[in-house]
Amino acid sequence: MNLTTCGLTEEDVELIVKRFLQEKRDKYNAKFRVLSYRVDRLSEEPIGYLGDHYFLNVVLREKMVHYSEEEEEYAEEEYLSFFMKILPEQVPKLADYVKEMGCFKKEIQLYTHLIPRLQDVAIGTKPFAPRAYLTKEDKMLVFENLKVEGYRMVENNKSLLDYAHLEVALKTVAKLHAASLVLEERTKQPITKLYSGHLNENVYIDDEKYVRKTNLDNAIKALSELIKRIDKYKNSDQLALILEKFPAVIRKIYDFAKPSTRYRNVFNHGDLWNNNLMFKYEELDKSSRANSDAGLNIEGGAAEGAATAAPHGLPTPTGGIILDFQLSRYAPPALDVFTVIMLSTTSEFRALHMESLLNVYYDALAEHVAAQGLALSQLLPRSEFDASCDHYHLAGLIENCLFCHLILIPMNLAKPMMATSESFDDFIRNGATKVQLCIDSYEQDETFRTRLTDMLSELIENAFWIVCVIVSWIGSALLIEASLEAFRTSAISFVVETSYRDWNTKFPAVVVCEMRNMERIQAVADDLWGPDHDFAMEEVLNEISYFRGESYHTLNECGGEDTTENCFFSNFSSYARLVRSSCEDTLEECYWNDKPFDCCKYFQPMETELGLCYAVNSLQTSAKNPLKIDMISNKYTGPGKLRISVLTEAFIYTLGEEDVPNLITPKSEVLLIDYYISYKRQISIKDIENDPETKQVSVEQRKCRFPDENILDVHAYYSYSACSVQCRKDKQLKTCNCTNHLMPNSDPAQRCDMAGLVCLNTNYEELTIVIPSWSTGKRGVVCDCLPSCTEVDIAIVHDWRESIFNPEKRYSTIEIELSALPTERYKRNVVRGRLDLVVSVGGTTGLFVGASLLSFVEIIYYFTIRPYGTVFMRKIRTRLHQHQHQ
């Protein structure tokens, strides 16, 4: 071969020889002179298509210090032989294919960085891979010639290995995997992070533009045609179904080839078939180790300087070595294990020896890991390995079909395909060409026909049942998931009801909260500080008693270093109680539908963040057993009307029975009451009716809470308004480590003193204004509060105001009435309850997997009661037998 063409220089040859002498003979300063070197093709037969393969034969003479030039001229010459793998640039289509896969680049990266480090990890044991003496420009690798070390490849064996060879192969693979595990444990990092990109997948990539995707699709077509020719399937009623499901089974290899998220991953070889395994036989005479071809290597390339031998009559191998790391990946060990077992055996052989072979591998792996001071039970427990074997068994069957439909093509049919660049490219990319070649091989070659029939039958029998079960369970799972999702997110529906003739409509809660009472403030101030007190303290007392979140006068008079006389700095709630009016001083002359009732008997005290209020028809009053007045409106009573007289300036709130007045109640919904004014307000109401099963649906599903589903401490019943009060209380505690003194049901120890009021005033906007979670750039508090399930929609229809001319008495009158009986209301229906979910899940499992409640009982029985019963009966029979014997 032209050395310039292959890119090998004299300096390269000297470097190769130097590295060889250093490693094999420990000669680190050896002086030598290369006399000549020659590159010879390994075989005239096609060896493989992922590279061209050659021998590099070197003649050298070692220099001796005491030799004269004349003596050195007659010194003994030495012959060295190396193996070369070169990018097949002389066949452009083939070279492009190899470059697209990145085979050479990957193998050069691995032999330059990762494999030497793994060999160092496994120091003290025989190497698992040949030594690379030169890697060059992503297109050349030069290795040691393994035949010199006594290694040879098993030939004429139909790509099958006997138990002894397979045992050695698995132990060698275990050595590679053990080094991978030990390296990761020592560095505490995965190999993919230590050597980023070195083990990226380059075979099974599900990308329409990738050439290997085309290869796999063509392989599916070829294998499908072979299935049609297998006797047991060609006339089967299931043939159409098998052919329909078969592509999906083969394409599972895309997922199998990815790093597992469930099982421990290691450095996987990825190409473990017969021609990538060499074995050492110490008993053989070296003179018998002659070079010969290794057969057609479709996936992996040639052996590094391989000598070949017949499989029968060989001595038992004493060692093994792995070749060609062009398709390596990062995956669980089971993928490599099943690849080498499946590709090297028949189904009959595996039925007899599979368990034993798995034990051989795991025991060897444990031994190599233990030699490095680690316990395999901690890195890869046997239970995890067995589980991964169950999972990757199908992957091995798939790999068997994908490899063997190529590597078993008889030589007389393979040669024309490899003869030219065009014929090779046609085979790789043209599905019809591959299909026809496989059909011809099946019809003409007994080995191809027998092996493909065996592996396809096993794959179908294993995978077809698995696929059917998986598809059934997937279908069942998808429908169950859809049912669960619908149950979680769409269990409730809202409708509008209009069948209003028989409705009873509750009148809303009416709450009266004193807004201001300067006469009370003056009287309390006189009692506390005498008639000559500083009148600025009355403003302080007003702010404290009717606290609304800000304290301008209080902080101005008492919050600084120079405080006004008579300032008070804590116990603000006591001062508020002194000022706030009693019910009798707030209300009089109450009427429901023009019928009088005792105001303070039914208007009960209510603690709110606005202070003490009085409410009728509310759940949130402070009374333990409040008296209720029947305030129902229906077709018999007509629209209800409430009329009251208020003796002080106040706020009037019209709310749902579970709602409470608070600082963020919209002002449009509040009546501001002043003296000598008669107010009249007409309202409309839309209630919410709940399906009786609504309470059985979770809060997350219905997205609301019933009043008795309370999670708050500020009020006894849940409502959106009560929740917002709780939210602001929590925010006050978090920001200022205290809460305002009017906060209902608050611990006196948590109420703010003067320093706390300063904090509340400083952070007024953050503590008072409620903003939505999606709002950005605004100041406020986010309150994630659900609405009440019984929330009432109250709308103002019309407001009137008239003056009262009665100089003898200061008061105001308020009349609140329904403008009309409601003709619509909302209805919350349960469309997917728990029973519906049970029926849906039961129907789905029955449809797809034929399961019923009894099936699950049987499963529990099979794995619990039955084993116990079996053991118990065995003991009874043993005792009975012993008794009879006696």
Automatic annotation (TrEMBL):
Residues 141-371 form the CHK kinase-like domain. It is found in: Membrane. One of its GO terms (molecular function) is sodium channel activity. One of its GO terms (cellular component) is membrane. Keywords: Ion channel, Ion transport, Membrane, Sodium, Sodium channel, Sodium transport, Transmembrane, Transmembrane helix, Transport. InterPro entries: CHK_kinase-like (IPR015897), EcKL (IPR004119), ENaC (IPR001873), Kinase-like_dom_sf (IPR011009). It is a multi-pass membrane protein. Pfam families: ASC (PF00858), EcKL (PF02958). This is Sodium channel protein Nach. The lineage of its organism: Eukaryota, Metazoa, Ecdysozoa, Arthropoda, Hexapoda.
